[in-house]
Design goal:
The chain has eleven helices and 14 strands. With 295 residues, it is an alpha/beta fold. It folds into two domains: 5-215, P-loop containing nucleotide triphosphate hydrolases (Rossmann fold, 3-Layer(aba) Sandwich); 223-292, Alpha-Beta Plaits, CATH 3.30.70. The strands form three sheets. The chain has a six-stranded mixed beta sheet with strand order 6-7-8-3-9-10, sandwiched between helices. Strands 2-1-4-5 form a four-stranded antiparallel beta sheet. A four-stranded antiparallel beta sheet has the order 12-13-11-14. The longest helix has 16 residues, at 164-179. Bound molecules: adenosine-5'-triphosphate. Keywords: ATP-binding, Nucleotide-binding, Transport.
Length: 295
């Protein structure tokens, strides 16, 4: 277990009849935001639920804030704010009542901050949960998760039901919340632009596995769309090693490289590539290529 890590997963296996979560290793440091991207059914929610011990894993170790997720579950939960994908709040309760109720479980509960968040997100304190819109329920869940000023926030697609204005507000709030101390956030989303705005690290999931995890800025630096013509079949064999995914027609290659150094163009040329073109990729483009497993 590494105390400096917000979350550390090692050798996780969780089998369902038609799906296996298989995470060899995933970790990110305290005080940072990890954006978790992946297509529908990739296993993002299952992995987050496993961290919260809401889904029991068959094998492997999970530590949150340097503590074992099973042995020290209660201690962890006092320091974690979790917002699930589906709203599971008591429908007959109001935001005010829920605040009073939830506050009993958290030493760090800050009632003024809770009121401030409700106001900021436009959630009426007296309105019952059942009368809130989908976005309203998500905003209330966020306020409840943020108000005890947790050391670690686990947010499962928190922005999916929100309109663009509230999404902006929420992302701003999130950045403010983690700015003052060493707060850490795991944030899953389909909205790549949201992840791009706030994340320090980005992890991509596909088919139950983490296929890539890196610092966001490094990802943008390293990934390039590449095209070239291979001088001959020997050159083609050597050049393919530089492409994460590619398609080929008559020795004309179009692909992507995830290992772009300043000298990639020169390296490809030395190995027999002609007419080399390199283009930067956005996070969205990288995600689409990785999600599909093809160019
Ligand atoms: N309780 C369960 N029993 C059986 N299979 C399950 C269960 N929960 C999830 N799964 C399966 O696990 C897979 C991953 O689902 P999960 O909800 O973790 O993906 P996700 O990446 O969060 O997807 P989305 O972006 O659509 O929310 C899916 O194939 C799903 O059917």
């Amino acid at each position: 277990m590494n105390d400096l890590m917000a979350i550390e997963l090692k050798g996780i296996i969780k089998k369902y009849p038609d799906f296996t979560l298989d995470v060899e290793y995933l970790a990110f440091s305290r005080g940072t935001i990890l954006g978790l991207l992946g297509p529908n059914g990739a296993g993002k929610s299952t992995m987050i639920k496993a961290m919260m011990n809401l889904v029991g894993v068959d094998r492997g170790n999970i530590s949150l804030l340097g503590m074992d997720h099973r042995r020290e579950e209660i201690k962890i939960k006092k320091q974690v704010g979790y917002v699930p994908e589906e709203c599971n709040l008591y429908e007959e309760a109001s935001a005010g009542w829920l605040g009073q109720f939830v506050s009993k479980y958290y030493e760090g509960w800050d009632h003024r901050f809770y009121q401030h968040l409700l106001e900021k997100f436009g959630v009426q304190s007296g309105k019952k949960v059942k009368k809130l819109s989908k976005g309203g329920k998500m905003k209330l869940s966020l306020c409840l998760a943020l108000a005890h000023r947790p050391s670690l926030l686990l947010l499962d697609e928190p922005t999916s039901g929100l309109d663009p204005v509230v999404r902006q507000q929420f992302l701003k709030e999130l950045l403010e919340v983690i700015q003052d101390e060493s707060r850490s956030v795991l944030f899953s989303s389909h909205i790549v632009s949201d992840i791009e705005k706030v994340a320090d690290y980005v992890a991509f999931m596909r088919g139950g596995q983490i296929v890539l995890c890196d610092q966001k800025d490094d990802l943008l630096d390293k990934w390039r769309r590449v095209s070239f013509r291979a001088a001959d079949s020997g050159a083609a064999e050597r050049l393919k090693g530089y492409l994460a995914y590619y398609k080929e027609m008559n020795q004309n290659y179009q692909g992507v490289s995830g290992s772009c150094g300043d000298d990639l163009r020169q390296k490809l040329a030395e190995l027999g590539a002609e007419n080399v073109n390199l283009h930067p990729m956005s996070l969205e483009e990288i995600m689409i290529v990785i999600s599909r497993g093809e160019v």
